[in-house]
C-alpha cells in the first residue's frame, strides 16, 4: 500500500485489507510504503502496527512518487501473490480470497483483476468502473484503461521480472504496466467476475487532481505500446479544464493553454494530428458554450449527465434568467423534467422540461445578486446508459439530454 499525507483515509483502507485475512488469504500481510508524510501518518502507522502485530509492516521515507512507493512495497513483500491498494481506496470483503481461488484454478495466470466501483469522498456510489475482460484485444486499449487498479492481484515474480512500475510516470504507471504485462504474458491474465474494490474519486487524489497529466501520460503510453494516440484523450480533458471557469480560471486563458497542450502532444499523434486535435477541441460542446461568465460541464458531443453542473458569475447588473436550449433524445422517451439546485430558497423549487421527445427550451430564474458566483446543478428526472439500452454500444456514460446552448439574459 503506497501512501503520502492520507491519514484521514488510512484506517478504513487498512481495515479493508485486514478483513481479507480469511479462507485462502488467512496468511495475509500488509506492507505500507509511506513517502515521508507530514500529516501524522507515521504515528498512525505505528499505532496500527501495534494493534495488529505480525500483520502490518511499514516504512516512512522520501520516495520518487507513487510508482516508486509501490515498487518499494512489492520488493519488501514476502507473499507470492500481491495486491496493490492505494491508501484512499477500499477492498470489499472476500476480494483476496476470490483472487487466490482464481490463481489456484489456473496456476499459469500471472495476474487477475475484477470489477470495481467509483465512490466519492464519503463512500457514496458514483457508478461502476468500465471494466473489460482480458480477452479484449490490445488495440482497444488505445481508448483508455479497462482495469480498475485496486482490483488487480499479480504474481510478485512477474512484477519484478518486468522491472516493476515506470517511476518516470506520475499518473499512468498502472496503465503502462498492464500493457507491458499483457504483451509479455499473452493469455495469462484472468478475470474475477465479482466486485473486488472501491476506487475513491476526490479532489486530493491523482485521478481528479492531475487531469492534465493523466491525459498527456495516457497518450504517451498509448504511443509507446500501441502506436498513434487517439485525439479524445485531450478533447475530453478540454471539457474538464473549462469546467474550472469562470471563477478559478479565465476561459480564454484555458483555451490558449489547451492549444499549447495540443502542440506538446505532437510526437504521439499522426501527421496533421495537432491541427485536427485543435479543431476537435473547438467542436467540444463545452468549448462552444463557454463564455467569460458561464461554463457548462457537458460531454464533448453535447450530451449531459443526469446532474449538469453550470457555473455562472453575475455581473454588476445581474442576469434575471438562464435560458437553455436542448433536445430530449432518450431511447426511453417519456417526459423529461428538470429541477435546479443552487438558486437559493426562492428558486430551488423551479421545474421545467418537456412532455415529449424532441427540441425544448427552458428559462430558469436567477437570484438577482450583483457579483454572485452561482454554482447551479440541473437535475434530470430520467437518464440512460447507451451500453445498457442500445444493442452493440460500449458507451458507459450516463446521459439525460443534449444541450445545444446556454445563455443568461
Automatic annotation (TrEMBL):
PANTHER family for this protein: GLYCOSYLTRANSFERASE (PTHR22916), SLR1065 PROTEIN (PTHR22916:SF65)
InterPro entries: Glyco_trans_2-like, Nucleotide-diphossugar_trans
Protein name (record): Putative Glycosyltransferase
SUPFAM superfamilies according to UniProt: Nucleotide-diphospho-sugar transferases
Entry keyword Transport: no
Keyword annotations from UniProtKB, A to Z: Transferase
Organism of this sequence: Rubrivivax gelatinosus S1
Lineage: Bacteria, Pseudomonadati, Pseudomonadota, Betaproteobacteria, Burkholderiales
Chain ranges of the Glycosyltransferase 2-like domain: 1-161
Amino acid at each position: 500500500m503506497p501512501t503520502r499525507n492520507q491519514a484521514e483515509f488510512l484506517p478504513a483502507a487498512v481495515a479493508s485489507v485486514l478483513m481479507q485475512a480469511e479462507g485462502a488469504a488467512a496468511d495475509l500481510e500488509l506492507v505500507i510504503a509511506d513517502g515521508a508524510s507530514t500529516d501524522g501518518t507515521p504515528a498512525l502507522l505505528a499505532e496500527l502496527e501495534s494493534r495488529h502485530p505480525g500483520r502490518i509492516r511499514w516504512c516512512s521515507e522520501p520516495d520518487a512518487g507513487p510508482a516508486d512507493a509501490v515498487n518499494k512495497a512489492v520488493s519488501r513483500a514476502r507473499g507470492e501473490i500481491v495486491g496493490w491498494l492505494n491508501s484512499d481506496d477500499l477492498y470489499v470483503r472476500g476480494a483476496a480470497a476470490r483472487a487466490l481461488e482464481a490463481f489456484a484454478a489456473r496456476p499459469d495466470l500471472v495476474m487477475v483483476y475484477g470489477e470495481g466501483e467509483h465512490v466519492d469522498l464519503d463512500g457514496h456510489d458514483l457508478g461502476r468502473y468500465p471494466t473489460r475482460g482480458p480477452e479484449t484485444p490490445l488495440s482497444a486499449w488505445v481508448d483508455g484503461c479497462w482495469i480498475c487498479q485496486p482490483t488487480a492481484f499479480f504474481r510478485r515474480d512477474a512484477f519484478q521480472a518486468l522491472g516493476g512500475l515506470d517511476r518516470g510516470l506520475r499518473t499512468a504507471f498502472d496503465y503502462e504496466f498492464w500493457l507491458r504485462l499483457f504483451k509479455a504474458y499473452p493469455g495469462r491474465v484472468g478475470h474475477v467476475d465479482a466486485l473486488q474494490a472501491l476506487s475513491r474519486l476526490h479532489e486530493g487524489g491523482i485521478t481528479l487532481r492531475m487531469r492534465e497529466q493523466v491525459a498527456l501520460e495516457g497518450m504517451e503510453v498509448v504511443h509507446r505500446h500501441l502506436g498513434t494516440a487517439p485525439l479524445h484523450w485531450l478533447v475530453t480533458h478540454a471539457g474538464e479544464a473549462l469546467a474550472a471557469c469562470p471563477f478559478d480560471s479565465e476561459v480564454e486563458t484555458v483555451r490558449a493553454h489547451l492549444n499549447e497542450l495540443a502542440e506538446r502532444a505532437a510526437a504521439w499523434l499522426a501527421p496533421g494530428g495537432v491541427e485536427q486535435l485543435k479543431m476537435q477541441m473547438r467542436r467540444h460542446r463545452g468549448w462552444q458554450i463557454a463564455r467569460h461568465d458561464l461554463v457548462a460541464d457537458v460531454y464533448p458531443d453535447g450530451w449531459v449527465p443526469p446532474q449538469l453542473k453550470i457555473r455562472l458569475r453575475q455581473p454588476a447588473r445581474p442576469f434575471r434568467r438562464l435560458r437553455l436550449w436542448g433536445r430530449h433524445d432518450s431511447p426511453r422517451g417519456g417526459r423529461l423534467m428538470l429541477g435546479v439546485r443552487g438558486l437559493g430558497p426562492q428558486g430551488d423549487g423551479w421545474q421545467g422540461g418537456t412532455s415529449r421527445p424532441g427540441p425544448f427550451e427552458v428559462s430558469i430564474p436567477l437570484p438577482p445578486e450583483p457579483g454572485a458566483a452561482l454554482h447551479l446543478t440541473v437535475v434530470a428526472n430520467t437518464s440512460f446508459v447507451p451500453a445498457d439500452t442500445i444493442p452493440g454500444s460500449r458507451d458507459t456514460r450516463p446521459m439525460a439530454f443534449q444541450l445545444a446552448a446556454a445563455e443568461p439574459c
